[in-house]
Specification:
There is one protein chain. A hairpin with a 5-residue loop joins strand 20 and strand 21. The chain is elongated, with a radius of gyration of 39 Å. The protein starts with a helix and ends in an 8-residue tail after the last strand. The chain is an alpha+beta fold and 502 residues long. It folds into four domains: 108 residues, Endonuclease III, domain 1; 176 residues, Ribonuclease H-like superfamily/Ribonuclease H (Nucleotidyltransferase, domain 5); 47 residues, SH3 type barrels (Roll), CATH 2.30.30; 70 residues, no CATH class. The longest helix is centred in the middle third of the chain and has 20 residues. It has 13 helices and 21 strands. It holds the Pfam family Integrase_H2C2. InterPro entries: Integrase_cat-core, Integrase_H2C2, Retrovirus_Pol_polyprotein, RNaseH-like_sf, RNaseH_sf. This is RNA-directed DNA polymerase. One of its GO terms (molecular function) is nucleic acid binding.
């Protein structure tokens, strides 16, 4: 830090101004040095380091390193700000910290999901069975096709053997022949986006509105219908009753927020059930003014929902890099906006890793902030330290760490072992290759006080009374052998068992 302070142009000027006095006309000062003019009375120099009050003023070459060191464990801004800003200072330290955290690739990958967008409701039709919602429900490994009318809330349920497009078309034809062909069908993607279903929609004269994948909120009414049907199925299974009876009573019950039932909204009459009733209540009665009541009820729901929703809506441009949330592991991955869909809040995104083309709602998209290039920590940037003959290379990906290719003798223990040589006059008895274990170089063994050093054990048949310490910090530990050792065929020493001297 002291060396970088002395070599930094701004820090050198601060030291010079502190020692020789600030110039009388400070208006001529420009750049970063002008930032310190208002606080010059609080600047001091100690041991070659510049301080503002009690905070160390960091030279430009070390700022990136300190920022990455503070963010090493990827804590948030509030947790890092105090410990960094209370010890160090430079112009724009807080904004640099914000930008560094915001552009951190790890933090962007594991950041939280988006908050809810403001509710955007479907338009309410004024005529029954002009707009339908359709989806599948699964209960006890059995599939059901659920259809609901957006105006009357009338629900149709079909038990199906599979989810093929042929099965769906067959069920829809049964509904259309009873209630008429709708103008719009709101559906999921598979199998409703198949060529056969599009051909069926074109032949029968209705439009298909596909929601964004994995965003069931776009078709919230049919999701509500699926929940109602599943609740009926659970109760039917428990009571051993018929689902048709449950549907009959549901269709004859008033819709929440309205005084009319789905049957009255669709047929302008109530249905006869097992519940006792008179014939007068079954006479047709037109439900008028329902559109305004439904609109009022929808506005209430939107107002309540938007209290917990995020007001700001994100918009993206074609060609812009974005983060796309993986719907399975909730991580954020990098993609590029390919096109803007006709439906609101929907984009086509091409994933950069797999090159897949996905359609996603803005709830699964975030702005991508590329990492900023730090002038002090570009790749292969060398910071020269005067007290060392080597250069410490700091990589932009791992600031402050020693590069694997740096020529430090202690960084690679094996290199230290390979550099050792045994003097010619060493009193070493080599008995050939069969007894090579007599001169054993063990990298795994360590002396008690030298855990990081390599130790060479020279085991001789003759007594050795001296221990030689080598100049390259390798320790030669010589074991004295008073008596002739008994060895096995493999060369292992046979030692008598230790006994207690009682």
């Amino acid at each position: 830090m002291k060396y970088q302070t002395n070599t930094d142009e701004v820090m050198a000027k601060l030291i010079d101004f502190y020692t020789n006095g600030w110039p009388g006309n400070t208006n001529n000062l420009s750049g970063e040095i002008a930032h310190f003019v208002p606080m010059r009375s609080s600047i001091s120099v100690q041991d070659g380091l510049v301080f503002y009050e009690e905070k160390l003023i960091v030279p430009k070459s070390m700022r990136g390193y300190l920022l990455k060191l503070a963010h090493e464990t990827h804590l948030g801004y509030d947790k890092i700000k105090d410990q960094l800003c209370n010890r160090f200072y430079w112009p724009g330290i807080k904004s640099d910290l914000i930008n560094m955290i915001r552009s951190c690739l790890v933090c962007q990958t594991f950041q939280r999901s988006n908050m809810k967008d403001p509710l955007m409701s479907h338009s309410i039709p004024t005529i029954p069975f002009m707009k339908l919602g359709i989806d599948f429900a699964e209960f006890n490994s059995i599939d059901y096709l659920v259809i609901i009318d957006y105006y009357s809330r009338w629900i149709e349920v079909f038990k199906v053997k599979n989810k093929t497009v042929e099965t769906v078309i067959s069920c829809l034809k049964q509904v259309f022949c009873r209630f008429g062909i709708p103008q719009t069908v709101v559906a999921d993607n598979v199998p409703f986006n198949s060529y056969s279903f599009k051909s069926f929609a074109k032949d029968w004269g209705f439009d298909v509105h596909h929601i964004s994948p994995h965003h069931s909120q776009s078709n919230g009414l049919v999701e509500k219908a699926v929940g109602i049907v599943k609740s009926m199925l659970k109760k039917c299974e428990n009571e051993k009753s018929d689902l048709s009876l449950y549907l009959l009573n549901y269709r004859n019950s008033p819709v929440a927020g309205l005084s009319f039932s789905p049957a009255q909204l669709l047929m302008s009459k109530s249905l006869r059930t097992k519940f006792p009733t008179n014939s007068e209540s079954l006479k047709p009665r037109v439900a008028s003014g329902m559109a305004s009541l439904m609109e009022e009820e929808k506005n209430k729901q939107c107002e309540y929902f938007n209290k917990r929703a995020k007001n700001k809506e994100l918009t993206f441009n074609v060609g812009e890099k974005v983060l796309v949330q993986n719907v399975f592991n909730k991580r954020w991955e990098l993609g590029v906006i390919v096109s803007v869909c006709d439906l609101p809040r929907s984009y086509m995104v091409r994933m950069l890793g797999s090159n897949r083309l996905l359609r996603r709602n803005t709830i699964f998209l975030k702005k991508f902030y590329p990492p900023k290039d730090d002038s002090a920590f570009n790749s292969n940037k060398k910071l020269t330290c005067p007290n060392r003959s080597k250069h410490l290379e700091l990589s932009s990906e791992f600031p402050g760490s020693v590069n694997e290719n740096d020529s430090y003798e202690s960084s690679n223990p094996q290199n230290c072992l390979c550099d050792q040589s045994i003097p010619a006059n060493e009193n070493t008895n080599r008995r050939g290759e069969s007894n090579i274990q007599d001169n054993l170089v063990s990298q795994g063994q360590e002396c008690p006080n030298t855990a990081q050093e390599n130790i060479t054990y020279n085991q001789n048949e003759a007594d050795v009374t001296e221990a030689r310490t080598r100049s390259d910090d390798n320790i030669v530990c010589n074991q004295n052998q008073a008596d002739t050792l008994v060895r096995t065929k493999s060369g292992r020493t046979v030692r008598p068992p230790k006994r207690l001297n009682l």
